[in-house]
Amino acid sequence: MPTSLGAASGVVRSSADTRRVGVMGGTFDPIHQGHLVAAAEVADTFALDEVIFVPTGRPWQKDQTEVSSAEHRYLMTLLATVSNPTFSVSRVDVDRTGDTYTVDTLRELRATLGSSEIFFITGADALANVLSWRDHDEVLRLAHLVGVTRPGHVLADPGLPTGAVTLLEVTALAISSSECRARRRAGRTIDYLVPEAVAEYIAKAGLYQVNR
Ligand code: NAP
């Protein structure tokens, strides 16, 4: 059951003809089954026509030495989503130089998506700080925000305008990228936590080894 931060849910279908597009933003280092289940759950809940996954280029405020290259993360996201016809992957953040700001992501996608309604989907923890994001007023105008979170995770209301953010609990988000990386570094399996092709890519590229 989705919950709204603020008052009633702001998700109202403006017109039956308007396309509804999810924009799934994340570092995806690596992409895992929790991300895929979350995207599918949001698509179902909000009757989305498609979901565009957007791996960050240079994640804001993250130490670049600790993040796999944008190209690795883009390719893993492509491998994870290729079999779903309603999922696609955008290079807008990977190809833009400098730090990744969601306002730039949404401006670029808005220019190509015409009158579509945009739902920006990401981890609820990340959205909790949205008022500190660059041009957050414009972010809120460009998209409805959907924060996905694991069950039982309580998030304080960050003081957002009424209905600006909807939270959705997704059981599969018990899986996390940091746990996948830690398991690899400990020599443990990540089978079934990530899609098979992603596990194979990680092994082939030697990602998340102790001395990376
Ligand atoms: P993060 O801080 O690495 O992640 C915070 C939490 O959210 C983690 O538990 C993470 O789990 C989860 N998460 C992240 N993306 C998710 C997704 N798509 N679906 C489900 N859970 C997700 O967050 P981040 O990856 O750097 O940033 C997330 C998005 O917010 C990106 O699109 C980023 O560009 C945007 N952002 C924008 C600004 C800004 O404009 N100033 C600032 C911060 C973030 P996992 O590690 O398992 O994914």
Describe the structure.
There is one protein chain. This protein has 212 residues and is of the alpha/beta class. It is built from eight helices and seven strands. Strands 1-7-6-5-2-3-4 form a seven-stranded mixed β-sheet, sandwiched between helices. Strand 2, helix 1 and strand 3 form a beta-alpha-beta unit. Helix 2 runs antiparallel to helix 8 and helix 4 runs parallel beside helix 6. It starts with a strand and ends in a 7-residue tail after the last helix. About 2% of the residues have low confidence. The site of NADP nicotinamide-adenine-dinucleotide phosphate has 24 residues, from strand 2, helix 1, strand 5, helix 5 and helix 7.
The largest sheet, given as strand count, sense and whether it forms a barrel, is: 7 strands, mixed
β-strand number: 7
The helix content is 25-40%
Distance between the termini: 40 Å
Q: Report the bound ligands by name, code or SMILES.
A: NADP nicotinamide-adenine-dinucleotide phosphate
Query: What fraction strand?
Result: 15-25%
- Cross-sheet strand order for the largest sheet: 1-7-6-5-2-3-4
Question: In angstroms, what is the radius of gyration?
Answer: 17 Å
Order of helices and strands: EEHEHEHHEHHEEHH
- Show unreliable segments: 6-10
Structural class: alpha/beta
The chain-level mean pLDDT equals 90
Shape: globular
Number of helices: 8
